[in-house]
Amino acid sequence: MESPPLLLKEDTQVIRELNLQEAPSGRITRYWVHLVTNGMGMPTYVPIIVAKGEEDGPALGITAAVHGNELNGVSVIQRLFRELDVRNLKGTVVGIPVVNIPSLLANQREFIDGTDINDIMPGKAKGNMSEVYAYRFVNRVVKEFDYLVDLHTASFGRINSYYIRADMDNPVTRQMALLQNAEIVVNNAGTDGTLRGAAGMMGIHAITLELGNPHTFQKNYILWGLAGIHNLMVHFSMTDSEIEQPTKPPVICRKSYWIYTDTGGILTVQPDVTDFVRANERIATLRNIFGDMIKDYLAPEDGIVIGKSVAPVNQTGGRIVHLGIL
User: Fold this and answer.
1) Which of 145, 192, 197, 259 could be bridged to 320 by S-S, CB 3.0 to 4.6 A?
2) What range does the domain containing 259 cover?
3) Tens digit of pLDDT for each residue in 166-176?
4) What is the DSSP secondary structure assignment for residue 193, as one 8-state letter?
5) Structure confidence at residue 269 (pLDDT)
6) Taking the CB of residue 29, how many other CB atoms lie within 10 A of it?
7) Which residues, 6+ apart, have CB-to-CB distance to 293 below 8 Å?
8) Which residue has the higher pLDDT, 60 or 38?
9) Which of 235, 264, 297 is the last residue of a domain?
């Protein structure tokens, strides 16, 4: 009986820290970065793909699955590196298909200690489990980037439009955001413990792409994310091609926030993502388990629906819609 084929390429190197100066030029190289060790004393490896051109240029980092249930970005990175022609690349493209390895394997959003690591970036060198993981990822990997695109999706029980979070007061990140041809762009400085915020504190220009829904692959969102990254590479003169223009300009929001329930019940949200709503327009109804109406929820002001809850069973304090304010 024949042995099964190896799942790993034999030339994949195990490293403790990414150093783009040492990466070979003119080829695509795969690495396993050893960040931490699990409870059996076995290493936890983060996969990294590095495409380095023969000519100098910027280092563009692309991260996915900071939350373990956000999968569309994984496919974006895989497809990007299948399509890249490193012979015509100026600079370096770094893809991390999965940042949060323990959560991906546990089929959950948060880190395995229950922490959302996108709330605690850049972590701590001497902290708890999630803080050390975040710190080492930022300081052993992200430090090498000039630009960062962080790929996310909605969480369990929610759906998203294709939207961008970026500091629109910064001309560099504003242009990066607009090149994504997204449906919605939200102005957000990113100083909130996110990977994007941690990168910004290190002088790395960073944006967040929200690509649809959790725990699935969605072809359209994957293609949209891929096109936006190709636009960035053209804009930074890393590849020689043409920028794909949007079919229509994005809706730009100066801020956004979630609207929450103040009691529990069976929730029905009326508007779809990207729908505009008016102040005092009904956006959701809440019923008890017998089907009796408990409450109508109204839009507090004019806005656009960026994301929404699709889970009918809603506890007190549950999310209803993510409202963007133009």
Assistant:
1) 259
2) 254-325
3) 999 999 999 99
4) S
5) 96
6) 17
7) 285, 286, 287
8) 60
9) 235
Tell me if 57 is assigned to some domain.
yes
The number of domains in the chain is 2
Does 3 score more than 50 pLDDT?
no
Count of positions (residues) in the chain: 326
139, containing H or E segment = helix 129-140
Long-range contacts of 202-206 (CB under 8 A, 24+ apart): 202/122, 202/138, 202/142, 202/143, 204/61, 204/142, 204/145, 204/146, 204/147, 204/148, 205/146, 205/147, 205/148, 205/170, 205/172, 205/173, 205/176, 206/147, 206/148, 206/149, 206/150, 206/173
Q: What is the CA radius of gyration of the chain?
A: 21
pLDDT digits (tens, 9 = 90+) for 189-223: 877 899 999 999 999 999 999 998 988 899 999 99
Q: For residue 215, give the amino acid letter.
A: H
Run of H or E including 210:
strand 205-211
Q: What is the band of 7 on the pLDDT scale with cuts at 50, 70, 90?
A: very low
114-117 contacts, C-beta under 8 A, 24 or more apart: 116/67, 117/66
The last residue of a domain, from among 165, 200, 235:
235
- Same domain for 213 and 292? no
Q: What number of CA atoms fall less than 13 Å from residue 118's CA on the CB side?
A: 20
Distance CA 282, CA 288 (A): 18
Say what the pLDDT of residue 177 is.
97
CA end-to-end span of the chain = 64
Residue 243: CB atoms within 10 A of its CB come to: 14
**Concatenated DSSP letters of 74-101:** HHHHHHHHHH--GGG-EEEEEEES-S-H
The identity of residue 217, as a single letter, is: F
Report d(CA 272, CA 263) in Å as an integer.
Answer: 22
DSSP track, 39-79: TTS-EEEEEEEEEE-SEEEEEEEEEE-SSTT--HHHHHHHH
114, 42 in Cβ contact below 8 A?
no
